[in-house]
Amino acid sequence: MRILIIGATGTIGRAVVAALAAGNEIIGASRKSEAAPVDIADPGSIQAMYRRVGKVDAIVCAAGQAKFSPLTQLSDADFRFCLDNKLMGQVNVVRFGLEHVADRGSITVTSGILARSPMSGSGAISLVNAGLEGFVRAAALEAPRGIRVNVVSPPWVRETLIALKMDPSDGLPADAVARSYTRSVNGTETGLTMEPSK
Amino acid sequence: MRILIIGATGTIGRAVVAALAAGNEIIGASRKSEAAPVDIADPGSIQAMYRRVGKVDAIVCAAGQAKFSPLTQLSDADFRFCLDNKLMGQVNVVRFGLEHVADRGSITVTSGILARSPMSGSGAISLVNAGLEGFVRAAALEAPRGIRVNVVSPPWVRETLIALKMDPSDGLPADAVARSYTRSVNGTETGLTMEPSK
Asked: What residue of B is the nearest CA neighbor of A137?
């Protein structure tokens, strides 16, 4: 398969690249990629990436920023940033990607556990993650030519907790998270929110 | 109680007004209201409404527009409209409303069944409804002074189906939907997505 991985240099993206590398052609997209530079907050940048990359069998997006902050400190601009980036960025990866995916191909995007299990400070992130999951459930119903659309909702990732100097013991290693992406790419399911676990 | 009902002239809003009228002071807000005019897509308009209305014990919002359309026909501007209106409009009703609600008061907003049970054409609406539910779960954790925050996720409303000339037999009457709002206003629950049923 020819697989486009957006956010290929991130913690999850690197693990997805490693999990899917054998036997497939991987195109790694990211803000600083030479092969496929993209800023998902910019719809035109997504369109340019797809034109440059051409037809693929699968698209995986593990990119998108959102802001963790107490509710009273989240500004109008903070919400706008989160909506434009992790939410509409990935919605647009799906919308614009449909015509660039081969018949019976797949698109997989990324939400996160705060969609369902919020914590203080997650107001904007919980909104973005839950909204993306709602969108994917609906978009999967309309995807043409047997194309499947899923969203992976990772728990806290072990490597991320270590980078944040938090207790990593409750985190799931990135290579275990990557298994949900390979299941989405190689499987037959569509419209699902996939929740990686041990 | 002093209760502000935003969208008071809509199908659900009228039923909520009727259900809560006895023994309470109701302030009906809507785009054409004289007492409390508001356009929830405009953050400044929400702020002006709150300044005009003053302190309340409960806020109910049954307002907000989103567009039902095939995914390939939803434009960037359509998504922006839905995000600004039903999603961020109600997020801002909560964010700005917290300081205008009395101790142990409540804020109740409105999503809809397409959050979890999508259909072809519901891409933007499913996004908006699910995103609002994710936001409410998180915001409830940070609401100060014992203020509760819930979201009602109505099924298809019988009166709406009749207005759309669709089969009303599967619809729930608006007065049954309104019971979830009275439960949110009068109860002790918070952070919930309340799903009205028969």
From this structure: B118
CB contact under 8 A, B142 and A120: yes
> Do A193 and A151 contact (CB within 8 A), yes or no?
yes
Burial of A191: CB neighbours in 10 Å, binned 0-12, 13-18, 19+: middle
pTM over 0.90: yes
Q: Which residue of B has its CA nearest to A98?
A: B72
How much is the ipTM here? 0.97
B198 pLDDT above the threshold of 90: no
Chain A, chain B: beta-carbon pairs less than 8 Å apart: 112
| Partner-chain residue, chosen from B76, B95, B118, that has the shortest CB–CB distance to A137 | B118
B41: Cβ contacts below 8 Å, ≥ 6 apart: B65, B84, B85, B88, B89
Report CB contact under 8 Å: A142, B133: no
To the nearest whole number, what is the mean pLDDT of chain A? 97
